[in-house]
Design goal:
Length: 332
């Protein structure tokens, strides 16, 4: 992969206004509305990049690293530990032996709170804090752990939730293992926490259930589960715009796999209806609504474009000579 240059909101708007043709065909947005459209995309954590020596600015899905109006940042790909909004003092901790110093726990906990308030995300720092909790169990804070797990849900389908989950204490992880081989929801401990479970254990089970629904693309059930228990409301309360971020993530996943979706189905997936649904689909996603057929039309992109592939394999007859010879050999 060549050099990937992250582009600011202003640069992206100017580029698409002045240079990029075919906005209506590519994104369903006119030049007059391009500023509002890309403003909405950046507000929903979609970044735009140039790749290699190309001069074309392209959307890079939704990345877990939120971009604000900054100078251009050039990176080789996007590294796992890269976070453009990471404060300098946090960066110093993560790149020194202080990341294993228990005294930095408070600093990293405050940083998690800042991520929840500012809608930023730093998986590398969050994993470092969970590792500190492993070494110093007496420092563990339930609220911080649940906030880290909730933030990691907002970047699905990345594996961040699983990475964070498996740094938790063993007594919590053991509660997620079914007691039998049944795979039904009624025997899934993550969906049915046992009465009397510790608050943190129950909270982790709830969040693991949401992650399972997202991983299984059961988006309508995700929203139903989220609205079914007051505990979910408490878990996501500290994470700013949680529902909005989840809708954008679901929309990106749908846009990568579908060309058309029934409106009723998509409403269930996004947990929206009426004017709120139309605004989100039209303004944020840039999709079209065909009211006559009751369908939502997703513009063609590199992910959802149907392309025929021809697989050709060249195997020489000599390669099968030994197999054919053995077929005619008499058994010993």
């Amino acid at each position: 992969m060549g050099v990937m240059t992250v582009v600011t909101r202003k640069q992206c708007i100017l580029y698409y206004k002045d240079q990029k043709p075919g906005l209506k065909q590519q994104y369903g947005v006119s030049k007059q509305n391009v500023a509002a459209y890309f403003h909405a995309l950046f507000e929903n954590n979609i970044i735009f990049v140039t790749r290699g020596t190309e001069s074309v600015i392209q959307p890079y899905a939704i990345d877990k690293r939120v971009m604000h109006a900054k100078s251009i940042i050039s990176v080789m790909g996007i590294a796992f530990d890269y976070a453009p909004d990471r404060p300098e003092h946090i960066d110093l901790i993560l790149n020194s032996l202080d990341r294993y110093n228990p005294e930095t726990t408070t600093v990293l906990q405050d940083y998690v709170t800042q991520q929840c308030e500012d809608r930023t995300y730093d998986c590398y720092a969050n994993l470092a804090l969970l590792k500190l909790y492993q070494f110093n169990p007496h420092l563990l804070r339930d609220e911080t752990v649940t906030n880290i797990l909730t933030k990691s849900l907002t970047v699905f389908p990345s594996p961040d939730f699983a990475l964070c989950l498996h740094l938790l204490p063993s007594y919590i992880l053991s509660s997620l293992i079914p007691s039998n081989t049944s795979t039904t929801a009624s025997h899934n401990p993550s969906s049915n926490p046992a009465p009397g479970d510790a608050p943190l254990t129950e909270a982790v089970q709830k969040l693991a259930h949401l992650n399972t629904l997202l991983s299984s693309a059961k988006y309508a059930q995700f929203w139903s589960a989220l609205n079914s228990d007051d505990l979910y409301a408490d878990l996501i309360a500290d994470v700013g715009d949680f529902e909005k971020l989840m809708r954008v993530r679901i929309a990106v996943t749908v846009g990568q796999s579908c060309r058309e979706v029934e409106r009723g189905v998509l409403e269930g997936w996004l947990g929206l209806s009426g004017q709120q649904f139309e605004h989100f689909v039209g303004e944020v996603c840039g999709w079209g609504v065909d009211s006559t057929r009751g369908m939502v039309v997703v513009p063609v992109n590199k992910e959802n474009e149907a392309k025929g592939t021809v697989v050709r394999e060249e195997v020489k007859f000599d390669q099968f000579a030994r197999v054919i010879r053995r077929a005619y050999e008499q058994p010993a």
